[in-house]
Write a structure and sequence with these properties.
Layout: H1 21-38, H2 68-80, H3 85-96, H4 99-107, H5 115-127, H6 131-142, H7 151-163, H8 167-178, H9 185-198, H10 202-214, H11 221-233, H12 237-249, H13 255-267, H14 271-282, E1 285-286, E2 289-290, H15 294-306, H16 310-323, H17 329-341, H18 345-359, H19 365-377, H20 381-393, H21 400-412, H22 416-424, H23 435-448, H24 451-463, H25 470-482, H26 486-498, H27 505-517, H28 521-533, H29 540-552, H30 556-568, H31 575-585, H32 591-605, H33 610-622, H34 626-638, H35 645-657, H36 661-675, H37 679-691, H38 695-707, H39 714-726, H40 730-742, H41 749-761, H42 764-771, H43 780-793, H44 799-812, H45 817-828, H46 832-841, H47 851-863, H48 867-879, H49 886-889
Antiparallel strand pairs: 1-2
Helix pairs in contact: 1-6, 1-8, 2-22, 5-6, 5-7, 6-7, 7-9, 8-9, 9-10, 9-11, 11-12, 11-13, 13-14, 13-15, 14-15, 15-16, 15-17, 17-18, 17-19, 19-20, 19-21, 20-21, 21-22, 21-23, 23-24, 23-25, 25-27, 26-27, 27-28, 27-29, 29-30, 29-31, 30-31, 31-33, 33-34, 33-35, 34-35, 35-36, 35-37, 36-37, ...
């Protein structure tokens, strides 16, 4: 027969108890899980980014011969030492089997049930955080012949429920229990008093005590002390003295009573009275034994430390220490804890070392865990490792926190292979990974290893009820979207929606953007629809990406629908987005119908404004439907809204873009009479005519504008010069350039580069300059420009020439990268070696060579048959991500 020896031999009177607790638990498990998964530790970053300081690693970790298994093995052995195979078998049955099969399997273990065994099993299950199994075991034990639950076992299960914050479950159980009718009323009421006291309802417990006294029955010493402690914890100090008197009258007063009373004084901030009470107990003895105990001293030391009276606490501890009969380990433990709470980590470590050397003090696992966690946050990895080794050497049984902290340590130390092996071995020693460890592990894996391995861990985490915090999920989303692992990302998002986790707009935006980029528009649209059904408002960028995807895919109808929805959600589309949607609608069947349908819906939903009409005028103009633009313009006038200057310009541009030059000219003349020389209007007309390749009309308006003493914009000059040079009307182009001097403006880099480009191709430009000038009356600026054009038309013979050329250009206009590319082009025509050297000198001049910089040199080398040198430049070009231009491909 299988037996279990237990340390506890005492057993109080047995009790009846009602329906199984685990059946109540099933009602609350889903809501409790939701509460637990919503409570996340702040995501902790991987070792590479957790702190500005570089963590120092234990020296032996740097050994080249050391394998991951060498480091992991001693930790695994230590973690396995906490396991109790017999208890593990009990909990395996409880987890895997239900009903008759589970009860039969437990029965075959032939357990010798006792209070001490039940308490040990519940305590073991509590350390494993297996609440449901604890409740099932408690239920099963209570139904076994020859065993009845005691006050202690009830108190144990109530404490487990209380620490799990399942007060509702406990209260429902107690309400159900009150409805039961038992012969043993003393035990029945005592259990209720214990339950309500632990559940934080001492007022109900007092009512039950009153009912008991009315019936002539009373509590035992255990129940009285549970009630007294609850009264102190919840501040019912006016009743504490009454219950204390009852405890004394019944002869139940002991060390527990004293500890609770001292706790009460401390909670009332009456530290002097607490010390007076404690000192009185220090000189008292009962049966030759001191009354004062370690818990009592620890309670008062805790209050002093929280009040930052560490020196006063130290004096008291030394006095108690002289008695030689009071264990001070509890006081040392709270002292360390309070030092840590006060932010005195180094002080806590120093205190620990001192007490260890002098008194042989060894903290419990909880104190060690707290120290290790604080050191880990500060990247003090050497000290973390030393403490973990010290725990092992002191035979401290590790708990779940210890194992999770160790997992975090290996992550932060950059030893992800060890961390992953520890993680994969979690089932061997019952490791339940907590949210902090998952955050460490996932962040480290996503930062340093493969996304797939990190995703594997994350899926396991979600199955265990953990979901990453927003920061961690953002890192995950970035990695998955960057590597286009969109199926995995979709799984995570759907799980988040299912579990009602709130993700940031930026995460949805990144994901939907990635779906759009990979042509998975339908998936993005379905996800967007699901968000709408959950009343989640998508961000503006999300709408823009979806709309952009659908109009590029030719689905103007969906793009238009999303555009309208976007406005309903409070996001105002810009003109560019409206333009894109309208252009796509105008490419569909029956474009005018599609156009007017969108226009009518907009008019029916929103108050029309000038900006609103401008969007449609602009969109129709870009779609090549100038007549629709004109109709909208006229509709605006009929509605009583005066067209703005922007409206006029957009209407003018719609004519010019569609080559309706006569319409544009007539419209411009009409507007000129109304607007009284609005400079922007003239600017739009000149630039628009140049882009329509109508230099004669552009020049006519340009000179007319100058006669009216209006100064054209620099863009007008640039577009005119570019078009006239393209048409080889160099004389006229130079007249426009000269006009810049007359209005006091410098030559822009754009105009200067155009002149250099045409001077490279032929000498026509410099000939036009000589033929159109009276060299006697030229200004210094004009002379410099002529010299530049003339010089640039000839070959550059060496480095000295190029330096002079740069200086000459600088006197005329500012150099930019395009200018340097023009110099490269001139050099490649006669001095290819100098061109190669000049290409790499651009970095020293503060420029990053672009595609055309490399392409010019490559083409020059290929023309001369220098293929080896050309390939070298081509490789460098490829590393930069540049491809050749079409003319150069003919030589490759």
């Amino acid at each position: 027969m299988l037996t279990v020896r237990c340390a506890r031999q005492t057993r109080t009177s047995s009790l009846y108890y009602p329906l199984p607790l685990y059946l109540f638990y099933s009602t609350y498990s889903s809501s409790a899980a939701k509460q637990q998964t919503h409570h996340h530790h702040p995501p902790l970053p991987p070792a590479s980014s957790a702190s500005p300081s570089t963590p120092s690693l234990p020296s032996f970790f740097s050994s080249e011969t050391l394998q991951a298994s060498d480091i992991l093995l001693p930790f695994k052995e230590w973690f396995l030492s906490r396991k109790n195979p017999f208890f593990d078998r009990i909990f395996e049955i409880l987890r895997t089997k239900d009903g008759a099969a589970g009860e039969a399997a437990l029965g075959r273990l032939n357990l010798r049930l006792s209070e001490s065994l039940v308490l040990d099993v519940l305590n073991y299950g509590k350390s494993e955080r297996d609440l449901l199994s604890c409740l099932k075991f408690f239920d099963w034990v209570g139904r076994q012949r020859g065993f009845q639950h005691t006050h202690a076992t009830f108190h144990a299960i109530f404490s487990i429920l209380s620490k799990a914050k399942l007060m509702s479950l406990m209260l429902e159980f107690l309400e159900n229990y009150k409805k039961q009718k038992y012969v043993h009323q003393v035990r029945f009421y005592s259990t209720l008093v214990i339950g309500y006291s632990v559940a934080g309802k001492p007022e109900i417990a007092l009512q039950l005590l009153g009912k008991m006294r009315f019936q002539g029955i009373d509590l035992d010493h255990f129940s009285y002390h549970v009630l007294l402690n609850s009264l102190v914890e919840h501040g019912y100090f006016d009743v504490v003295d009454v219950i204390t008197d009852q405890i004394r009258l019944r002869g139940h007063e002991n060390g527990i009573t004293h500890s609770i009373l001292v706790k009460g004084f401390c909670k009332q901030k009456d530290l002097d009275r607490a010390e007076e009470y404690l000192r009185r107990l220090m000189v008292e003895k009962v049966n030759g034994k001191p009354v004062v105990n370690g818990v009592l001293v620890a309670t008062f030391v805790d209050a002093l430390c929280k009040d930052k009276q560490f020196q006063r606490a130290g004096v008291l501890v030394e006095e108690v220490k002289k008695l030689g009969t009071v264990p001070l380990e509890p006081a040392y433990g709270v002292w360390i804890r309070d030092l840590l709470k006060a932010g005195k980590l180094d002080g806590a470590l120093e205190f620990l070392r001192g007490k260890k050397e002098v008194d042989g003090y060894v903290p419990d696992v909880f104190r060690y865990n707290t120290l290790v966690s604080r050191l880990l946050r500060q990247n003090r990895l050497e000290e973390v490792f030393d403490l973990l080794v010290e725990m092992k050497e002191q035979n401290i049984l590790p708990d779940g926190v210890t194992m999770n902290t160790t997992l975090c340590f290996f992550c932060k130390a950059g030893m992800l292979d060890v961390a992953m092996q520890l993680y994969d071995s979690r089932a061997e020693f019952g490791l339940s990974v907590n949210s902090m460890a998952y955050n460490y592990l996932i962040n480290s894996l996503f930062g340093d290893v493969s996304v797939d391995e990190a995703y594997y861990v994350l899926r396991n985490a979600i199955e265990q009820g953990y979901f990453p915090g927003k920061k961690t999920f953002s890192i995950i989303a970035d990695a998955l979207c960057r590597e286009m692992k969109l199926d995995k990302m979709m799984e995570l998002v759907l799980v988040a929606l299912e579990k009602n986790f709130t993700l940031s707009d930026s995460i949805y935006d990144k994901f939907i953007s990635a779906l759009c980029r990979s042509n998975k528009l339908e998936d993005g649209y379905l996800l967007h629809g699901q968000l709408n059904r959950l009343n989640k408002v998508a961000g503006k960028n999300t709408y823009c990406n979806l709309i952009s995807g659908f109009y590029k895919a030719g689905r103007g109808d969906i793009a238009a629908s999303l555009l309208l929805e976007m406005q309903e959600k409070g996001h105002m589309p810009n003109r560019k987005l409206f333009r894109a949607v309208i252009c796509r609608l105008c490419q569909m069947d029956d474009p005018e119908k599609q156009f007017y349908r969108l226009l009518e819906i907009q008019l029916s939903r929103y108050e029309p404004t000038c900006q609103f009409y401008n969007f449609f005028i602009d969109g129709a103009g870009h779609a090549g439907k100038h007549h629709l633009a004109r109709q909208v313009y006229q509709m605006m006038e009929r509605s009583g809204i005066a067209p703005s200057l922007k409206s006029d310009i957009l209407m003018l541009q719609s004519y010019l873009k569609n080559d309706k030059i006569s319409n544009a000219l007539n419209f411009f003349r009409d507007l000129s009479k109304k607007r009284e020389f609005k400079r922007k209007l003239w600017h739009s007309m000149i630039v628009g005519l140049c882009k329509a390749r109508k230099p004669e009309y552009a020049l006519e308006i340009f000179w007319e504008m100058r006669k009216k003493q209006l100064k054209p914009s620099i863009e007008c000059y640039e577009e005119l010069v570019k078009l006239l040079c393209y048409r080889r009307e160099y004389r006229v182009a130079l007249e426009v350039v000269d006009d810049l001097s007359r209005i006091g403006r410098p030559i822009s880099s754009f105009i200067g580069n155009v002149l250099l480009l045409h001077s490279v191709n032929s000498r026509e430009l410099i000939n036009a300059w000589y033929n159109s000038r009276n060299l006697q009356n030229l200004t210094a600026r004009s002379m410099t420009l002529g010299k530049l054009v003339d010089t640039f038309s000839d070959s550059i013979r060496g480095e000295e020439d190029i330096n002079k050329m740069e200086e000459l250009i600088r006197q005329c206009f500012p150099l930019d990268l395009y200018t340097h590319n023009m110099l490269l082009r001139r050099l490649s025509m006669s001095q290819i070696n100098l061109a190669c050297e000049y290409l790499h000198q651009l970095y020293k001049k503060g420029y990053e060579p672009n595609r055309w910089s490399y392409d010019i040199v490559v083409r020059g080398l290929l023309k001369l048959g220098r293929h080896v040198d050309a390939r070298r430049i081509m490789e460098e070009m490829g590393h930069k991500g540049f491809d050749h231009t079409e003319p150069t491909r003919l030589f490759v």
